UniProtKB/TrEMBL annotation, chains A, B:
Name of the molecule in the record: Helix-turn-helix transcriptional regulator
Gene source species: Dyella kyungheensis
Stretches assigned to the HTH arsR-type domain: 4-99
PROSITE patterns: HTH_ARSR_2
UniProt xrefs under Gene3D superfamilies: Winged helix-like DNA-binding domain superfamily/Winged helix DNA-binding domain
DNA sequence: CGAACACTTCGTGCCTTGACGAAACGTACG
DNA sequence: CGTACGTTTCGTCAAGGCACGAAGTGTTCG
């Protein structure tokens, strides 16, 4: 009747329109690991010409989904923040029908551990999230997940830098739905900073070409000691 | 280069295209409380003619966002499941800029308590979620939030039907972002069934016209006894 | 049984939007 | 300083999608 114009309907439609074009969707998915990429690379990833890509990137930028960093004659685009990343990973997760079980086989490393925007995802990400929650190191509340005092102590004892762990205490984490595992892992500022700490400590290493992550032997041992479930296979 | 065609880009674009039209967005938002509404009512809510509305509803149906229930000469449409509802409420939440603080004043009841799809949202929803988590009645894990044994006992002691509470134990809850509070409340199957139990027990009552909920005096007392924070004002 | 009703399907016109090539702009490099 | 390169802007064209009126299907009611 008179619920004529709700402002949120246009907000919803605006975001939808940005995602509606396969070329734009491909660009966003290419950036989901949190890296920043130049326009030309995104054009190739989307399968369109440079001019077309530029127009798409402009719209995504004005829509607030992307941020840009100019450097010389390159313009590096990245996702605006991890709210956007979480939104995209949520929408890209297959709803309804079950996820296809690894058709190519080539994405095994991706399923093991990868970055989702800037936090840890994949089997290792889900396992770490489980371990932290089950042992009460991280507690959920309505304002988000918070690292507890004794959880911080456990991380330090496991080998992380104490000052670094200290900075994690005020940060809030969010559950982020994993598209391979269909379970939650730890995202949000807490998830991002914790993943950074793991990378800097050498427990995980970035692979050169993809957004897959490779745990070091030592790092894997320490993670298992923290309670992360892991079968030796793969 | 050769990341030419990822299937998920089309999945993302498909969902985006469904949301991209203001008329369709308005229809989805009109259904966000979990009610089922006939096509004509949705046409009026979207501000389009019957023929146009029918075409939109068909697309939403084929896209898996809606379900339909035929009854006589009416066709009642509703959201397909609460994954869809959560997705929409997440996307409709204003990103970035802060949420406007109650411009009309008319949505006070909505901010207090309402249904989000079929589970409890608003200040009361956030407060209940907090109470359950802080007292360990509900624990988060990567597969979702689960009601614990002693949490079930607490609910029974507070006055809910024991057999009813029993059915909640195997259900998984999910955090659902609240657009008025910008904090999480309890959604998913667990949130839906728990809200049903509260309604059937008379702790909450539906208001006639909107999706706002009104706690009964007795119900509010029992919720506060469960640990839900509440100021007497409003 | 016929009229009113709810909804869908069909056909048409209009407008938005994405694609590309050509050209302009700015930076890097020899 | 001129050329090569990455990126954006402009102009044009074609296609897709939305809106509506008219007609068709099935249901309810007098």
């Amino acid at each position: 009747m008179n619920d004529a114009v709700s402002p949120s309907r246009y907000q919803l439609a605006e975001i939808g329109a940005l995602l509606a074009e396969p070329a734009r969707a491909a660009m966003l998915l290419a950036l989901i690991d949190g890296t920043a990429r130049p326009a030309g690379e995104l054009a190739r990833a989307a399968g369109v010409g440079a001019a077309t890509a530029s127009a798409h990137l402009k719209r995504l930028l004005e829509g607030g989904l992307l941020a840009v960093h100019e450097q010389g004659r390159h313009r590096y685009y990245r996702l605006a923040d991890d709210d956007v990343a979480g939104m995209i990973e949520t929408l890209a997760a297959p709803r309804g029908r079950p996820v296809l079980p690894d058709p190519t086989g080539g994405d095994r490393p991706l399923r093991t551990a990868r970055t989702c925007y800037r936090h840890l995802a994949g089997r290792l990400g889900v396992g770490l999230c489980d371990a932290l929650l089950q042992q009460g190191y991280v507690l959920a509340a309505s304002e988000g997940m918070r690292l507890q005092e004794h959880g911080a102590q456990a991380l330090v004892q496991a080998g992380l830098d104490a000052a670094r762990v200290e900075t994690l205490l005020p940060l809030a984490g969010r559950g982020c739905l994993d598209w391979t595992e269909r379970r939650l892992h730890l995202g949000g500022p807490l998830g991002v900073s914790l993943t950074d700490a793991l990378l800097d400590a050498g427990w995980l290493r970035r692979r050169a070409t993809s957004r897959a992550l490779q745990p070091s032997d030592d790092g894997l041992r320490r993670l298992i000691a923290l309670g992360v479930p892991w079968e030796s296979g793969s």
